[in-house]
User: Fold this.
Amino acid sequence: MPRASDSAKKEMTMEATEAVSISSTAKTSSSEFDGDDWKKSGGLSCDGRWESFDDGHVPETLQSDEQGMHVDEIGETTNNGPDRLLAVYPDYVEDRPETLRVYDGFVPDSVVNALYETTRQDQQPWGTYVSIQQVRAYWEEQKSGNQDENHKYDSATAQNQQQERNHLALMATASFFRAALSPKDAASLSFVKEGEAAVPETTPMKETFIGSNQDVKPEFWTLSDLDRIHGVAVWGLGAQKSSQVTYHLDYAEQVRYETNRIVPPALAGTLQCTPSKIIGGDYCAHMGGLQHYQRFGYKGIKDASSNVLKTLDTDPSWVRIPYKHNRLTIQSGHLPHLSTPIESIGATSTNNTKRVIVGFNVFFPDIGPLVQRAPEHSPIFRRKVALQRW
Assistant:
């Protein structure tokens, strides 16, 4: 692998040091994330536990014999033998059925369109992190009249691109949680102003779940769940014709790079932002959850005899969601998924039309502060990965 020049190394090291400094408050923001607590409880919130799990992948940052002893982000030392462990949160993986919901038109169009513009213009994906405290503060602003739930987003209020993306991510995340909650719970939140009617009930366009009794609608996300989380990793990704997203499981990427431990989000979702017609690029999630991922593994490498894409039309546990502007998907965080190849992207009034997806991964206080330090696809994340690849 090519080595970085000395000047490049110096610059990247300074940037990485800055990244640690910027995020130092994030680590101490959660009392659950102390070294002693991590070792005593396994470091996981919500009665989570570590289980042995092999998806057939070891990050390249942990493969080299030259690395020797390595102190990872959670303060534990490894010696070229990274743990193959999976974080399991029983209340979210074992006690609730796998669920996927789809909503159309739930997020304000002005927010969706602004997300599209800021994402398609960039050659790289972008990423940020929204804490649950920020979401609650946003709802309080709505209640006090400083924000209007259906207001149009005004990009002129942002001082720079990063500030614009952070604010758009916050607004989209607030809508994401509203959709995840039951109408009754959503109506009880603080963003309902005094004297206003409760938030009208919105039924998902599609809801799929796998459970022992499908006559009973399962509990999906509650106000108590909001109290348990730390925040949400949010990213934007623009793709062009013929591209696709390989079969995978969402997890805390930086933790995987450092330790080979897999920590899926408690809740996940996507927002489809491109206003023009797109053929292909369907979002597909498998309701078999971790059992399916255990079989196929990282990017399908554990079952080389089978092409995961070829099972879309034969395996009834696949849920296939065609691409549509302002379509929101919300799902159990441990569902493996992919997107099909993009066949065509319709023209818009601007050049460089792309299929834009904004993603959401919800994390607890055990891992959330780590993700907050270097959200996936953020400049800090890319710099940290580059340093680790030396």
Notes: Residues 93-388 form one domain. The chain has one domain: 93-388.
